[in-house]
Amino acid sequence: MTKLNLYVVRHGQTYFNIYNKLQGWSNSPLTQKGIDGAKTTGERLADVHFDAAYCSDTTRAMDTAKLILAANKASEVTDPITAPFFREEFYGYFEGNDMSQAWYLAGAPHGLPTFKDIVAKYSIGKAKDYLKDADPFHQAENNDEYWQRVDQGFELIRSNNTLKDNDNVLLISHGNTLLSLMERYAGGKYDLSTRPANGSLTRLTLTDDDIVVESYNQ
């Protein structure tokens, strides 16, 4: 069984992050703090030999990946492999909307006016389902649609025949995706009421048929 060491980093801070706007498939640039944070994460990982790098095809993820790889002293990898499979949850009609307002519209009909309320009673997956229900176009991803896409991203990494057992892979990810991964694979080990920090590091072991969480949001 091949095991790969995934270094999963949340992208640097963006303008939508500081404006408290939902940012799934939509995009906003990294702030200067986001650029500096990505460089700091790159310094933390400068001596890790990466055998491949992946990210979504959003500029915030690609820019973060390139800043981290530029700071790396141990690898020959200079550019990430991009794929839509690694994108954040698609929020449909609510893309770019105020985050608190969007989750209110999703959860309030169920007596749960905030994202944290929905997650506390049910799950992050249920929050996805509620948001799709509230979307007047019903184009936001529900939980099943989300995982059908994201799972293809991990299969893309597994199918890379240049990677060998115990190789290191950099993956630039997104806030709700990291929360979703922890909910699905961490077995309740972490407090998911707080979002992972921009530039934070999460360690996963990717096997042929599973994902094991080694550490989160460090």
Map the helices and strands.
Elements: E1 4-10, H1 15-18, H2 32-44, E2 52-55, H3 59-70, E3 81-82, H4 99-107, H5 115-121, H6 124-134, H7 143-158, E4 168-173, H8 175-185, E5 201-206, E6 211-215
Parallel strand pairs: 1-4, 2-3, 2-4
Antiparallel strand pairs: 1-5, 5-6
GO cellular component, one term: cytosol
Keywords: Hydrolase
Protein name: Fructose-2,6-bisphosphatase
Largest sheet: 6 strands, mixed
Enumerate the spans where pLDDT stays under 50 for 5 or more consecutive residues.
none
Relative strand content:
5-15%
CATH architecture: 3-Layer(aba) Sandwich
What is the end-to-end distance? 28 Å
Helix content: 25-40%
The strand count comes to 6
Figure out the total of helices.
8
Provide mean pLDDT, rounded.
Answer: 97
Helix-strand sequence: EHHEHEHHHHEHEE
Number of domains: 1
The strand order across the widest sheet is 3-2-4-1-5-6
CATH class: Alpha Beta
The shape is globular
Radius of gyration: 17 Å
Helix/strand structural class: alpha/beta
CATH level-four homologous superfamily name = Phosphoglycerate mutase-like
What does this 3D model show about the protein?
- GO terms for molecular function: fructose-2,6-bisphosphate 2-phosphatase activity.
- Keywords: Hydrolase.
- This is Fructose-2,6-bisphosphatase.
- By secondary structure, the protein is α/β, with parallel strands linked by helices.
- The chain has a single domain, classed as 3-Layer(aba) Sandwich (Rossmann fold), CATH 3.40.50.
- About 40% of the residues lie in helices and about 15% in strands.
- The protein has eight helices and six strands, in the order E-H-H-E-H-E-H-H-H-H-E-H-E-E.
- It has helices spanning about 15-20, 30-45, 60-70, 100-105, 115-120, 125-135, 145-160, 175-185; strands at about 5-10, 50-55, 80, 170-175, 200-205, 210-215.
- Strands 3-2-4-1-5-6 form a six-stranded mixed β-sheet.
